[in-house]
Amino acid sequence: MAMAWVWSGMVIFSLIFALCTGNLDAVSAAALEGAGSAVRLGISMAGVLCLWSGVMEVMNACGLSAGLARTFRPLLRRLLPDASRDGETLAAVSANVSANLLGLGNAATPLGIQAARRMAHGCHGAASDELCTLVVLNTASIQLIPATVGSLRAAMGSAAPFDILPAVWLSSVLSVTAGLAAARLLSLLDRRRP
Amino acid sequence: MNLSSLVVPLLLALVAAYGLGKRVDVYAALTRGAEEGLTVLLRIVPALVGLLTAVSMLRASGAMEWLSALCAPALELLGIPPETAPLMLVRPVSGSGALAVGSELMAAYGPDSYTGRVAAVMLGSTETTFYTIAVYFGAAGIHKTRHTIPAALTADLAGFAASALAVRLFFGT
């Protein structure tokens, strides 16, 4: 329902703003142009997006995601010590993280949900610290090859659509670090409160 | 010859060779993945029709520039280009909405401009926070989210500032 409010707000706000600024002709043209450009954008993104989704699937079939999951296990064991005591939860979390890294969103979400369900046992509806950490880990994306953004840049005529990769990696790592630090700090503050 | 032109063909060749070495049907996996890509596209195009319409209207009405100007003082303090303000507002709520705003920014400023690059890095390094939280806690039956939302939004904000920083670092302004 949230999107209904956001979308309606955008359209109504545009109309009011256009009436005030006298840009009504431009807004009317833009509405029709926007709808057309959405379909053009989808078509021009399609090739690159499908190609990289295909490459990711090949990497997945080669066992890269299983390898990544093994690599991340020690790190996740430190990040989620309680959950890691249960082998199946740890396996689901590490598979979730590696699927996210490969940009396999459709594979990552069910794995993450499986882990979250196991971790929610005995929580009585309130998120534990580690459950918060797991969700923060999933709301901060780390992707090796952000295929959607790359194909968007290609569609918009970028000279080298994937030249932003190092910048994306650096920014993702900083973002996840900040999120995890904030989660830790807030949980400490939470515990101090009587 | 540009060295960065080597990355894409090299990556494709390496993945193919590695897959063959592992006795994986590389071609079948590639087409399976491409099909997955099409379903992703099929899901986002209808959303893009609605959202690019609204975003184009906002731009044409002048509201977009007004919003950027409104947020400019705070954003300049964080080193973030103020033109990306609408993108940051939409990003945690809607993935397709962010894609629509991002494409609109790239059309207005150019995909290889400073603003265009920052928008792309923002899109690549953050997630649809509220959607993700709703899906995970909904499935796990959690209704007290405690500090999840503030921590996740901190990650988003840090990601936005880091995107601008990283683009300045790798490409300059």
Question: Main traits of this protein?
Answer:
heterodimer; A: 194 residues; mainly alpha; 9 helices; B: 173 residues
How far apart are the first and last residues' alpha carbons of chain A, in Å? 36 Å
Poorly predicted runs of chain B are none
How many β strands of chain B by DSSP? 0
Task: Give the helix proportion of chain B (percent range).
Answer: over 70%
H/E element order of chain B: HHHHHHHH
Biggest beta sheet attributes of chain B:
none
What is the number of independent domains of chain A?
A: 1
How far apart lie the N and C ends of chain B?
A: 24 Å
Query: What structural class do you assign from the helix and strand content of chain A?
Result: mainly alpha
Shape of chain A: globular
Classify the beta-strand content of chain B into a percent band: under 5%
Largest sheet of chain A, if any? none
**Number of DSSP helical runs of chain A:** 9
Whole-number count of domains of chain B = 1
Cα gyration radius of chain B (Å): 19 Å
Q: What structural category do the secondary elements of chain B indicate?
A: mainly alpha
Q: Largest interface by residue count?
A: A-B, 100 and 102 residues
Measured by DSSP, the beta-strand proportion of chain A falls in under 5%
Question: For the residues shown, what is the average pLDDT of chain A?
Answer: 90
Give a verbal description of the structure.
The complex is a heterodimer of chains A (194) and B (173). With 194 residues, chain A is an all-alpha fold. Chain A has 9 helices and no strands. The two termini of chain A are 36 Å apart. Chain B has one domain. In chain B, 78% of the residues lie in helices and 0% in strands. Chain B has 8 helices and no strands. In chain B, helix 5 packs antiparallel against helix 6. Chains A and B meet through helix 1, helix 2, helix 6, helix 7 and helix 8 of A and helix 1, helix 2, helix 5, helix 6 and helix 7 of B.
